[in-house]
Description:
With 86 residues, the chain is an all-alpha fold. It has 3 helices and no strands. Helix 1 crosses helix 2 (47-60) and helix 2 packs across helix 3 (62-83). 0% of the residues are buried.
Amino acid sequence: MSDTPLFSRSGNTNLLGGTLDAEIKIKVTADMQDDFRRAAAEAGLNASEFGRELIMIALYGADYLESLYRERTQRIAKFMTKTGNE
């Protein structure tokens, strides 16, 4: 088996691996909820994706998360080179 990480076929996994099967619920004011959803939309994400990204940044740091995205993008870019679509 290869040591190269493979992409998920499901929307239920994340960059850190594992399935998204646990929930965190918090109570906030209606204004906070509106502001959160607005911020998520401005970032081009839904509220769940935005919250997940914020939590990963808080726990692991922005630099680490950026490195995961960079590695994933580099793996994808290799396919573009193979097909001549650079």
